[in-house]
Recover the amino acids of this structure.
């Protein structure tokens, strides 16, 4: 805390210039994030590779290059987009594709709910923030004390959104997918999530629920449609009801 | 065909935007109740662990052990040694790729 106070004082002005009515928390976040475009780089690179793959796969599935890019811009949800397009490629119907996408997206409901109390402004502004929520940006915008920083969500969200949409365009135009498996890039994403998880494993409770959530998810994968195991695994967090009630 | 695909994109966009916006639009900036807050505080570790589990140990609906596990293990060691996140990701991908070569 003291470190923050010492180092953020000069940056407060920058924060005020950047957006009106800026709060101290925002200034701290801004400072942290100025340094963290470097932090965003590995996320952008991994997402970029997936985006190129998605662009190529979309066109292969018969979605036009323009519509593939529109899909990335309006959905901004990699897992759901891949699932929808893969179902079309297997000859599945639009209804099944959209249902699968929804199931994969359901986890965004609790994620957005957690961010909600920290969002200010009218509904278009809140809508913009909620659109920027993907797994990576959501985790990146959570500060060490468990609160969420809208400025961090905006910065990570806009950076990764531009990356995702741009990469989709490249993939759709080249129609040449990246061999993700040969490059080991399918391991890059869980490695990023591990990097986001580790700082959140400080207490025994956090270790316990994380391990439980991972195991429960794996148990459900063979039985439930994609997306559902993650949601049910994530619901191990419901144990937090008791946790908070006791303290 | 084009209208079918347009249907997919429109339905995908509306459903995703709605799902993501549900909390922020209904709840607005209102504070959460204590109990809900307790749950949401544990959500990050739970959801991240669930995502890691799926992306490391599954292929389709099958649970598998493959080269990715080695990549993630190396990433875990690198993180324990406080490596830069960029290094962590490169190590995970290159370990996985090398074992597949």
């Amino acid at each position: 805390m003291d470190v923050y106070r010492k180092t953020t004082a000069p940056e407060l002005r920058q924060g005020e210039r950047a957006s009106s009515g800026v709060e101290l928390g925002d200034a701290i976040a801004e400072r942290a994030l100025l340094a963290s475009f470097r932090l965003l780089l590995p996320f952008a690179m991994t997402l970029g590779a997936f985006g190129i793959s998605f662009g190529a796969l979309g066109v292969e599935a018969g979605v036009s290059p323009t519509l593939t890019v529109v899909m990335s811009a309006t959905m901004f949800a990699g897992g759901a987009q891949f699932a929808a397009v893969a179902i079309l490629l297997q000859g599945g119907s639009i209804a099944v594709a959209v249902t699968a996408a929804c199931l994969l997206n359901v986890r965004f409901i609790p994620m957005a709910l957690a961010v909600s109390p920290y969002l200010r402004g009218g509904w278009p502004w809140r809508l913009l923030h909620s659109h920027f929520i993907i797994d990576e940006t959501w985790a990146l915008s959570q500060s060490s004390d468990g609160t969420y920083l809208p400025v961090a969500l905006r910065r990570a969200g806009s950076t990764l959104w531009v990356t995702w949409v741009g990469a989709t365009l490249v993939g759709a135009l080249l129609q040449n997918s990246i061999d993700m498996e040969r490059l080991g890039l399918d391991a890059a994403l869980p490695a990023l999530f591990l990097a986001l998880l580790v700082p959140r494993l400080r207490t025994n409770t956090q270790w316990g629920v994380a391990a439980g959530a991972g195991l429960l998810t794996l148990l459900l994968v063979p039985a439930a449609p994609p997306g559902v195991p993650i949601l049910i695994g994530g619901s191990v967090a419901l144990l937090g009801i008791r946790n908070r009630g006791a303290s | 065909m084009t209208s079918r695909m347009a249907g997919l994109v429109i339905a995908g966009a509306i459903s995703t935007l709605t799902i993501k916006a549900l909390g922020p639009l209904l709840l607005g900036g209102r504070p959460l109740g204590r109990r809900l807050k307790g749950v949401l505080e544990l959500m990050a570790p739970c959801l991240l662990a669930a995502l890691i589990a799926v992306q490391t140990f599954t292929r389709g609906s099958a649970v598998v052990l493959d080269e990715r596990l080695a990549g993630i293990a190396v990433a875990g060691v690198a993180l324990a040694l406080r490596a830069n996140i960029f290094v962590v990701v490169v190590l995970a991908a290159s370990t996985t790729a090398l074992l597949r070569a």
User: Anything to note?
Assistant: The two ends of chain A are 23 Å apart (CA to CA). The first helix of chain A runs from residue 2 to 8. Chain A touches chain B through 102 residues (CB under 8 Å). Chain A is about 70% helix and 0% strand.
